[in-house]
């Protein structure tokens, strides 16, 4: 059997984040098992998407739900649905959007690398506001009869220059324009699976391969029945724009198992465990030259703590050198940097308990500590 080892590919310890570039997250046994079992039979893919969608809707307290090939694919599919609805002739023409609703409104300060997933559908992004401030009238005046939807990236830590989601939803509803929340990494809290849509967003999009710990190539779209229905026209197995974003039966069953598990989790206990990991890191690195601080919330506002380890000038390495040397050791340990680059950030979210002493020992050795 091929293995990372046989291939000569180094395995990594993820003390940074659910980054796609290092493999996102690890699937729990029950998710792997669901995928293995799903691989043993043929099924009708549309029937599976229907029934898994119904179950996911129930679990996430939404009208309807859909499994996509990653959150970014969810963004593309939802955009297609907002542009062409469930019109087969229009769907077939995408990404040529001539004569269709082909404008998508976004805050200028929320533009990010993932908006290519929206643009790939042939729409024009209409930016509102600037990095400092956006006014409600700017959103109102950007809306016209070509507006397909408003995309909103909900990151609690990036509120500068952004209208509150409540305001965006109110204006969207007034003009009959769908509001789509990119909540790819916005877990925990688990309530986010229903909070955005309960607030009135038309759909919210989550990554299946981040905190949900589903298969890497899955995404979850939850929201209004009509929109989710229209999404299906644009998806594999149909020959439309989403055909190249195929979701397999194994991924569907894996994501379903992951969401079932995530909903069932004792979230207070999980949070407590993450806090304990941060405390263990604080205790273990109680050394002259180091200051360890608890950082809250997560990188885009998620409800979990991280540890920032600040290095003073008595240390033999800078924070960046420490980060790099951790990464290039065996196994590689991936950590983050504090915004001022004076320290490293250790994120407990993706760690396994036995990995913490390993990280501590490696850091002590690199920093010539006892
Ligand atoms: C990770 C992320 C995505 C993409 O999610 P995938 O499941 O990897 O496709 C989209 N938007 C935001 C804000 C993200 O953080």
TrEMBL record:
Gene3D superfamilies in the cross-refs: Type I PLP-dependent aspartate aminotransferase-like (Major domain)
Pfam family, one: SelA
The protein's required cofactors: pyridoxal 5'-phosphate
One Gene Ontology term of the molecular function aspect: L-seryl-tRNA(Sec) selenium transferase activity
Sites bearing N6-(pyridoxal phosphate)lysine, chain numbering: 210
Range of residues in the leader sequence: none
Annotated keywords: Pyridoxal phosphate
Entry similarity comment: Belongs to the SelA family.
Protein name: Selenocysteine synthase
Species whose genome carries this gene: Xylanibacillus composti
Taxonomic path: Bacteria, Bacillati, Bacillota, Bacilli, Bacillales
